[in-house]
Design brief:
single chain; 495 residues; alpha/beta; Aminopeptidase; 2 domains; seven-stranded mixed sheet; four-stranded antiparallel sheet; 15 strands; 41% helix; 18% strand
């Protein structure tokens, strides 16, 4: 497809999206009292701002302002996090938390609706994980519950949670005790399929390794220099050799933060690398961190440089609650799935053609491999029009989320709702490009309805919360939550 036809397709995409949003808003008139038009604008504002961890000023304000105007009592800057907030409605028990996110990803700037990689002029970041949809669906769900409370006992709290991507905002919030008041917590995540999320996720630790050497003329006096960049490179080589001797559940990633300068004729006196280290649980992650630290110390010895290690953030492994998973599964079945017209399917097919057949298959969720018919539909159809059968699992999933730290404090569960063509990979330009599409809006609406139904079901049957608490108590053995981020470590905005 040439660039002109891609441009035309992008324009068609926007016309379809705007037409859907107008029709969507009109269908809500006279029904819900919530300001749907304002919520849609809020979602677009967050997508366009594409703010990174702990810098989500516009995004956080947009959601907090919306909820405040809808009658929620809003407290901003909670837990000493400038872009975190707490919005409450109702009174009495149970106290149910809904977790909203709104941060973007570095390096994923992308023009919406265009089926090739093309960054938005003036932007380096983008919503390659759909958190603009995540936060707005949570806000809508809370408003729908508010309208249906009708004197029922129960408190709903929306937590505006910054910095899920690379910042572990919820971990800092958990450390501050912000989730201690909850009886349970629910959330969701945009995806290309509809499914209850089950299983554990990796704990992780993120650290900066700063090497300090001595600058010198690289030709005239190289013997006087001590290269910090050499130390970074040797550390990376050493860690790459370490990979042979770690467990299958371990992952180690790194990014060069400071290469020491742009002149090859100067021995670099300072260089830094950022490492993200994952393992099955907090204890194993901490042990792997110590091994990586030893490699870094060895690199410093080899280069006669000094090493400074700076703790950035961490999060725990997941404790997904099967009682609440069943509540979400029932709510998903009770909620009508979105219907897609031919133009929406055609647009989704255009994006699906940008995903290689190999990546489409390798990126398939493992649970689908047990259902040949669903596997076929995943590979062949553009959009998900079904719900994956629910199966509770405690198997480890590769990846991490700071929702895990909430799950260590209170019973927690989450689900996926389809917002993108099937096969769209997380943290990809394709996902970012579909972020304002009609299927994305419809998936967000479906997620809000599921959350609303799940919360109302819990309010009508508080015994389910008691059962969820009993399971949580058994799994944690009654031990108090221990935050993997040391007390003295503060959130960093200079990412």
């Amino acid at each position: 497809m040439n660039r002109f036809s891609c441009r035309f397709q992008g324009e068609l995409f926007f016309r379809l999206t705007e037409r859907f949003k107008q029709a969507y808003t009109e269908t809500k008139k006279g029904g819900e009292t919530m300001n749907q038009k304002q919520l849609s604008q809020c979602c677009k504002t967050i997508w366009e701002a594409s703010e990174l961890r702990f810098k989500e000023k516009k995004s956080s304000a947009a959601l907090a302002d919306f909820l405040e105007q809808e009658g929620f009592t809003v407290e901003r800057g909670i837990g000493k996090l400038a872009t975190a907030f707490r919005a409450q409605v109702g009174q009495g028990r149970p106290v149910i938390g809904l977790l909203a996110e709104y941060d973007a990803l570095e390096g994923l700037s992308q023009i919406a609706g265009v089926t090739h990689p093309e960054p938005r002029p003036g932007y380096k970041s983008g919503h390659g994980c759909g958190h603009h949809l995540l936060g707005c669906a949570v806000a809508k769900a809370a408003c729908l519950v508010k309208e249906a409370l009708d004197g029922k006992s129960g408190t709903i709290i929306v937590f505006g949670c910054p910095a899920e991507e690379g910042g572990s905002g919820k971990t800092y919030m958990a450390r501050a005790g912000l989730f201690d008041e909850l009886d349970c917590a629910l959330t969701w995540h945009p995806s290309s399929i509809n499914t209850v999320i089950s299983g554990s996720y990796q704990a992780n630790v993120q650290l900066y390794f700063h090497f300090h050497g001595v600058a010198s003329h690289a030709a005239g006096s190289p013997h006087l220099g001590r290269s910090a960049l050499d130390a970074v490179e040797l550390m990376n080589v050493g860690v790459n050799f370490l990979r042979e001797h770690i467990e299958d559940s371990d992952r180690i990633h790194y990014a060069l933060i400071d290469c020491g300068g742009k002149s090859p004729n100067v021995v670099q006196a300072a260089a830094s690398v950022l490492y993200l280290i994952r393992s099955e649980n907090n204890e194993k992650a901490s042990a792997l961190v110590e091994r990586v630290k030893q490699v870094a110390q060895g690199a410093a010895l080899m280069t006669e440089t000094t090493l400074e290690i700076e703790f950035d953030k961490a999060c725990s492994s997941m404790l997904s609650n099967p009682v609440l998973e069943n509540v979400l599964w029932k709510a998903m079945q009770q909620t009508s799935l979105p219907h897609y017209d031919d133009s929406e399917k055609k647009a989704a097919e255009a994006f699906k053609r940008t995903i290689s057949e190999e990546n489409l298959y390798l990126g398939m969720p493992k649970i689908l491999r047990r259902y040949p018919e669903l596997q076929r539909r995943y590979l062949e159809e553009p959009l998900c029009t079904w719900i994956v059968p629910y199966e509770h699992s405690e198997a480890l999933q590769m990846g991490s989320t700071d929702v895990s730290d909430v799950s260590r404090v209170t019973p927690t569960a989450q689900f996926n709702a389809a917002c993108y063509c099937m096969g769209t990979l997380g943290h990809s330009w394709q996902l970012c490009a579909q972020g304002l599409s009609a299927p994305a809006w419809k998936g967000m609406d479906y997620a809000a309805e599921v959350l609303k139904t799940a919360v109302l079901n819990l309010l009508d049957d508080p015994q389910r919360i008691a059962e969820a608490k009993a399971w949580h108590l058994e799994k944690t053995r009654g031990e108090k939550y221990h935050c993997p981020i040391p007390e003295e470590v503060l959130p960093k905005t200079n990412y």
